[in-house]
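Example record

One chain of 163 residues, shown exactly as stored in the release files.
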Amino acid sequence: MEKIPEIDHVDIKILSELLKDAKTPYTEIAERIFVSGGTVHVRMKKMEKMGIVKGSTLDLDFSKLGYDITSFLGIYLEKSSLYEQVCEELAKIPEILNLHYTTGDWSIFVRIACRDTNHLRQVLHDKIQSINGITRTETFISLEEKFNRPLAFDESDMTEEII
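Predicted structure tokens for this chain:
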């Protein structure tokens, strides 16, 4: 792991608390880890400036909003030099939740949320497969998401190289 001298065990404790519940007030985190609320605030601003903390998100149950199909799509590119161009086009498709540049069979792997199989067919056929540079795709429909968790930090995982 790359050595990051600006991060210490207090920063890791703050991140660990926020990963459990991102809505936890800084004052409550401060009480739990025995520092001041101001310390938590300053440390969070520092980690945002460093790009470690990139914002906050909501964890939604898409099915309760009418998006009953979660699928994964392996995308084959005509040539790898088209990656950036294809990603720019894929970023315009709101149903694509995340995108990964991968090794192995596919060049790109994405997660998609759709209302139903008809909507998924439309996204695949009309939006994704019409992008120049994509030669073919493989689709996998998720039957259930058992869990979706962030990486958990624990002080016992910390080594001298990290801090």
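Notes: Helices lie at 9-20, 26-33, 37-50, 83-90, 117-128.
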